[in-house]
Amino acid sequence: MHCLLTLAPADQRKLCLHQKAADVWCALTRATTLDPVVRAVIAQRGNAIAVLKRGSRAAAAKGSWRRASFKTVKTKEHWTLWASSGAADSAQLRADLKRRVESIVLTEDGLVPQDLTDPSAREALLGPAGAAYGNKGVVVGSDGSLRKDGAMGAAYAAKENRVPARSVAVCGSPSSCRPELTAIAMACQDVRREEDLTILTDSLSCMVRPRACSGGISLCGSIGIRYGSSWCTLSVL
Questions:
Q1: Domain-ending residue, one of 110, 134, 160
Q2: What is the DSSP string of 170-190?
Q3: Strands 138-146, 197-201: parallel, antiparallel or unpaired by DSSP?
Q4: Coil vs helix vs strand at 167
Q5: CA dihedral 145, 5, 24, 42 (to 10 degrees)
Q6: Do 106 and 134 belong to one domain?
Q7: Residue 225: which CATH number?
Q8: Distance (Å, rounded) from C-alpha 214 to C-alpha 209?
Q9: Tens digits of per-residue pLDDT, 186-236?
Q10: pTM of the full predicted structure?
């Protein structure tokens, strides 16, 4: 998937000119920034599949890191999704891909109730933690981030919106584990103890050594063992 929306013409050419029609690739473009040479190449080696019309909630708002929250803004022009002949080599496949793209829900806060039949969920289901999405109880995905300037943020979202999503700025000494554990701690705090809880995390350190990584963060319950009267399971993504 090549996002050409903000790339300079030279970078667009470097990324796309070597792509063959038989290769499997997609490209997202807009008219005002798309290099004419690149446009001719992708039009020759692929097809325009769908257009996200001007005013779609497809762009991320600036300042998400500073506010520790995510908001979308409306696009100022049409965005076009292209697919190579190798990715969609028939009219039927192109029509199906168009339908799938147009079925994606775009919202102001970027959050939608998780639907495992939605095309955007396919990658998650095929991943190493895919089976965990079928666990009983509350399934939560958590994440934390650390920027080069030391700013930290943490967030989690629950499958089927069983628990309202939360995102916060994280204070303290910069650490990659601190925001990860903050997100995990928030989920443990917000989910009722009588509920089974599955937390999906991409932090192996926080999973295998939560106490050593905690850095003063108090976790609600014991990660990886019985939590309250139910089980709290951590799965590595």
A1: 110
A2: E-SS--SHHHHHHHHHHHHHH
A3: parallel
A4: strand
A5: -170
A6: no
A7: 3.30.420.10
A8: 9
A9: 998 899 888 888 888 888 777 776 655 555 444 433 333 333 334 445 544
A10: 0.56
